[in-house]
Design brief:
With 681 residues, the protein is an alpha+beta fold. The protein folds into three domains: 211 residues, Distorted Sandwich (Beta-galactosidase, Chain A, domain 5), CATH 2.70.98.60; 296 residues, Alpha-Beta Barrel (TIM Barrel), CATH 3.20.20; 89 residues, Golgi alpha-mannosidase II (Immunoglobulin-like, Sandwich), CATH 2.60.40. Helices cover 20% and strands 31% of the residues. The chain is built from 13 helices and 38 strands. The strands form seven sheets. Strands 6, 7, 8, 9, 11, 12, 14, 15, 19 and 20 form a ten-stranded antiparallel beta sheet that branches. Strands 21-22-23-26-27-28-29-30 form an eight-stranded parallel barrel, surrounded by four helices. Helix 4 packs parallel to helix 5, helix 7 packs parallel to helix 8 and helix 11 packs parallel to helix 12. The longest helix has 19 residues. The relative contact order is 0.09.
Length: 681
């Protein structure tokens, strides 16, 4: 890793790539290269000419951070409005400095705006962000975190899209004209996750791939634009829809960062880079086998009922017991399902817990488990003490009926008193009880944010601040990010939170697709996945227990079944699979998404570590002919020997055999699955 500066040329070098740009004679930042490693003193800066009076040099130059105006017409990174109503920006190079692994290049506009472009060079990743300084009052109308031009006109874009219950569905499309992937709901994920992967005929194992992911959990925007000059522009940042950031003279604004990487090793290599980066953001605290009570009880939570579940959760080997929604305020099931009461009132319901949470927590600890609890701090119900006392604390527009969704309003966390209340309520809960894990939910989108158009940004800023402060005050606390399922999955959230609830859809078959899409960028260690009862509440499918467990094991294992309805034999089976996961867990470091070369429909996930590997193979349904599949493993030491059980016999083979020749797997029937463990000898 290094930063190289020769005059006004800049080279950023990771372990296997270089990123190069320079200052033009006109003071523009011209992008030159992002790809394999090159030496800065070898770089040739080819001349550029205006093609016509309609194709001026400002538009032709592939700029690092182009602003609105000055005869440039592709997507701008920065748009502002000055006090005189002017909106043109003319950003030119002003200065640069490098310290350690960070380079800062300053651009300046003579009317009083400075932009510092920050580049942080890590082992395989370059992080970029921008600081906008105002020397006069300005309104920021749009501000991207980064843009990079690529000199190709035939790139393929990959992302994940979806909706509630169907998050992380892989999307692949050629870049034509302009493609915009965005979120406008106040959360980052359900519809388009804030990342983009670009490639030219890449496979899982080969081909040049470029990837970039925005570190932000709110409204986001990713733009891939094919220009008329044969370039593909990739831009990421907070969404400019309904955005207005007012800066007074002397104030500044810092954008979220973008993590960028490139590789010639195909999609799997790109995923490895991002997984490594994601794990570097996570705390070193262990992710324990979790039991969550939601699907067993819904809102009908009682102390005795939770104790009964906890006793069975301990019996099957759970390490963390989490009480979900229904423990607080007056959150009682009724004709409304219990969703109109309680949110905002973060005191323990004495009708459900006459002696508080202490008896339950003591029982959980006595059973050898940690205790966790569900909260939804950003929301308030209309039938709550908090709303009765402070009806003005929600987002609403004067003269309009307040938007009610899922029986709740969104608290205006940009108000200091609201932020203080939420932090204080959660802090008191954690002070009163020994709670190791918070499941932080957010079950409806934001709306009616009013005239202050910085709210979309400031709200997420407040969420991060509250969560971060709780972890400072309560060392060892883990916080799960849940937003009506997988609505807030991104690297910005992972910097503060610890786990992702990836989807409310716990169907084991559907989860295979969700897990594969998620794993394009995000580490499986942060992906909570549950085993739940059948028929599944959403799909109505009845899937065998082994398949359900194997599917959940590809993430961070949790159980959400109603264990009080299980027979002794069923509890024994649950315990067997939980122990199998615990035995495999030390080997499950790096995830590889393997390709199925057969005409059947196998789903293959493989983990590798220095100590060995684990292969998960699934066949949701057989096709005609019951064909087998060839599995070539990845990430092994080619010279090491590995011991494994295959086709009911014990075997040993070198890593190069397993990676180059591999194994033939033949699963039969519907919802068939198997797990093969490879121990390094």
């Amino acid at each position: 890793m290094s930063i190289e500066v020769i005059g006004e040329r800049f080279g950023l070098h990771t372990r296997s790539s270089s990123y190069v740009f320079c200052v033009t004679d006109a003071g523009l930042l011209r992008h030159l290269h992002w790809g394999g490693p090159i030496a800065l003193d070898d770089v040739i800066v080819e001349p550029l000419w205006e093609l016509s009076t309609n194709d001026l040099i400002q538009d032709i130059v592939p700029q690092e951070y182009p602003a609105h105006g000055r005869c440039r017409y592709s997507e701008a990174c920065l748009r502002v409005c000055f006090p005189d109503g002017g909106r043109e920006l003319d950003l030119r190079y002003a200065a640069h400095y490098a310290t350690g692994n960070e380079l800062v290049v300053r651009l300046a506009d003579p009317k009083g705006v400075r932009v510092d472009l920050h580049y942080e060079v890590l082992e395989d990743v370059i992080r970029r962000w921008v600081v906008v300084d105002a020397e006069t009052d300005v309104l920021i109308e749009s501000v991207a975190s980064a843009q990079v031009p690529l000199p190709f006109s035939d790139l393929t874009l990959r992302n994940v899209t979806g909706r509630w219950g169907a998050e992380f569905q892989e999307m692949t499309a050629p870049v034509r004209a302009k493609t915009v992937l965005e979120s406008r709901r106040g959360i980052s994920t359900h519809h388009h996750n804030p990342f983009a992967i670009l490639s030219r005929d890449a496979t899982e194992t080969a081909g040049r791939v470029w990837g970039a992911a925005l570190e932000w959990g709110g409204n986001t925007k990713v733009v891939a634009e094919l220009t008329q000059y044969g370039q593909t522009l990739l831009q990421l940042g907070i969404n400019d829809a309904d955005l207005g950031l007012s800066l007074l003279a002397g104030e500044s604004f810092t954008t979220p960062a973008v993590a960028m990487a490139t590789t010639v090793g195909g999609l799997d290599a790109m995923s490895q880079v991002f997984h490594d980066y994601g794990r570097s953001l996570m705390s070193g605290l262990p992710r324990r086998v979790l039991y969550n009570s939601w699907e067993a009880t819904n809102f009908a939570v009682t102390c005795d009922g939770q104790i009964a579940l906890a006793q069975r959760a301990a019996r099957i080997g759970a390490e963390l017991f989490v009480v979900d929604d229904g423990w607080f305020g007056r959150r009682t099931p009724g004709e409304d399902g219990g969703i109109l009461d309680g949110l905002g009132d973060w005191w323990v319901d004495p009708g459900k817990f006459p002696d508080g949470l202490a008896p339950l927590i003591d029982e959980v600890h006595g059973l050898g488990m940690q205790f966790g609890i569900w909260v939804e701090p950003e929301m308030v119900n209309p039938q709550s003490d908090l709303f009765a006392a402070h009806p003005d604390w929600i987002y609403h527009e004067a003269g309009r009926e307040s938007d009610l969704a899922r029986g709740q309003y969104v608290l205006n966390l940009t108000r200091p008193e609201v932020r203080s209340y939420v932090l204080g309520a959660l802090d008191s809960l954690l002070n009163d009880y020994d709670i190791a894990y918070l499941k932080w939910d957010a079950n409806r989108p934001m709306s009616q944010v009013g005239a202050a158009r910085d709210v979309w940004y400031r709200h997420i800023e407040a969420v991060y601040d509250i969560a971060a402060e709780l972890k400072v005050r309560h060392p060892g606390l883990l916080i799960e990010a849940c937003a009506s399922g997988g609505g807030r999955v991104d690297f910005g959230t992972l910097r503060i939170f610890d786990d992702f609830w990836t989807s409310d859809n716990t169907d084991a078959r559907d989860r295979l697709d969700i897990h594969r899409g998620y794993s394009l960028v995000y580490p499986p260690q942060a992906m909570r996945a549950w085993v739940t009862d059948v028929p599944n509440f959403l799909s109505q499918r009845s899937i065998p227990l082994e398949f359900r467990f194997h599917s959940a094991m590809t993430g961070s294992l949790g159980i959400g079944s109603d264990l009080t309805k299980c027979t002794d034999d069923e509890l024994t089976a649950y315990a067997k699979y939980v122990q199998e996961y615990k035995d495999l867990r030390p080997l499950m470091l790096r995830l590889h998404r393997l390709e199925d070369p057969s005409t059947n429909d196998y789903r293959l996930f493989q983990y590798s570590s220095d100590a060995g590997a684990v292969l998960f193979a699934f066949l949701p349904s057989s096709r005609i002919g019951h064909t087998a599949t060839s599995v070539r493993l990845r990430g092994l030491d080619p010279d090491a020997r590995y011991r494994f059980r295959y086709e009911w016999q014990d075997h040993e083979a070198r890593g190069d055999y397993l990676m180059n020749r591999g194994l033939r797997l033949w699963l039969l029937g519907d919802y068939a699955s198997t797990v093969i463990r490879f121990d390094r000898v």
